[in-house]
Amino acid sequence: MSDGRAGIEAQVVGLSEALSRLVPCAVTVKRVGWQGNIGRLPWWLNLLPKRWLTPESGLPASRNPDDWPDLWIAAGRATLPLSIRAKRWSGGKSFVVQIQDPRVPPHMFDLVIPPKHDRMSGDNIFPITGSPHRVTPQRLAAEYEAFQDLIDPLPRPRVAVLVGGKSKAFDLSSERAAQIAHSIQIPLEQDGGSLLMTFSRRTPETARALMTARLRHLPGMVWNGEGPNPYFAFLAAADYVLVTEDSTNMATEAASTGKPVFVLKMDGSSLKFRMFHEELERQGAARPYGGAFHGWTYDPVNETDRAAREVLARIGVEIPQAAAEPEPPPVASAKTKAKPRTRPGEATKALKDAAAPKPRKPRTVKAKP
Length: 369
Fold this sequence. Notes:
The protein is an alpha/beta fold and 369 residues long. It folds into two domains: 6-118, no CATH class; 137-300 and 333-351, Glycogen Phosphorylase B (Rossmann fold). It is 32% helix and 12% strand. The protein contains twelve helices and eleven strands. It has a six-stranded parallel sheet, with helices on both faces. Strands 1-2-3 form a three-stranded parallel sheet, sandwiched between helices. The protein has a two-stranded antiparallel sheet with strand order 5-10. Strand 1 (71-75), helix 3 (80-89) and strand 2 (95-99) form a beta-alpha-beta unit. The longest helix is centred in the middle third of the chain and has 18 residues, at 174-191. The termini are far apart.
């Protein structure tokens, strides 16, 4: 259950898919919609939520337990009036899991899964690093294959740059965007690597245009928002991942790959996000970006599966032995140099900005005495 926003839905679907990987189950996705301005009301003022739901929301009309799910997994403010009543409406059948800090008394749910930086605690609280997501080694491999002809010819190191945008705590001004672009351009030109850059829907248009103009001459791909989204393919192909500090989702997804993650400074600040990045640093996954690329190793951050195992333990479902085995390490194939199949100049219109000149040997820069 979510309001359908990509970042929110990815969390509930990601946890649901993790459950389905561990035990056989069917996953149904519902998107909550409210009529008029009802969705703007605080949860405690929405006294008759079923009456104000849009028909597309698809909530069970009856209180017959057979119509209700065994697990109700929800995230986002729009779901709160429903989540706090789902247990009663289902006759006690549905085990209600709310992701993120619901900002309501947690005893209204069976289990709350917030990020650790929200500093929640209690018997029905299971904090995790970051947020649940849909990244798995299998998905990365499949997404990489879809863009392999475009990515394989690109020189290494391949640097994925994941750019967010404006939020309550952060912004991306033209000045900051220019600083970020310059700090990426210099080491890539020196090392002879390639750029894999994508923007979010929150990225200001001026910042998007400026960064694209400054970096489009580099070998690589800048996704312009048209056609298939190469986001997961970029994660699979990258040797290093740079992510702006405004997104918990993008940083957690990057850290699940086991690849070096660098955090890019934006305009603004947030104590919670600083605590989140410090948690990633303690786990060895992320470091602040200082204008140069360097590698290290760490155990991939796999909090989605850990949360799924906790949910199953809470409802008393045993995980089959085969599913209990850990997943293989993320996408080894993305690190393997493959023979080019097409020239980068033959990129589709959706990836016009792809440009992959012949690989250059890295230059050694000697400091002057």
